[in-house]
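Format notes (please read before filing issues)

Several people have asked whether sequences and structure tokens are stored in separate files. They are not. Every record keeps both together, in the order shown below: the sequence lines, then the token lines. Line labels are part of the format and must not be stripped during preprocessing.
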Amino acid sequence: MDLFRPELLVDPATSVLVGHSADGLVTVEAVASRNHHVVGISNVFAVEGGVDRAWPVVLNAVRRLFPTLPVVGYEHGADLDAAIRHGFEAAGPLRVWLHG
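Then the structure lines:
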């Protein structure tokens, strides 16, 4: 599956976060995209337990990798509810602009 373009995967500002079970299976995934001001989290996924299982793993990894940067996300609906349960605050709707 070509979920992520090669340019994204070689971008030094982008990290694919992966959590493993004790037997080495992938159980949690997310993408962290950082700049000098924030770390943006997207594509949060857990094999079992949904995003409520994923957020603690993702946030722990982000704190270790980028300890000084605030964390932002782009969730809505049930995913936003889960993010709020794990310490996020809703800031308002996301507006996406397309160019070209």
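For reference, the curators noted about this record: The first strand starts at residue 14 and ends at 20. The mean pLDDT is 89.
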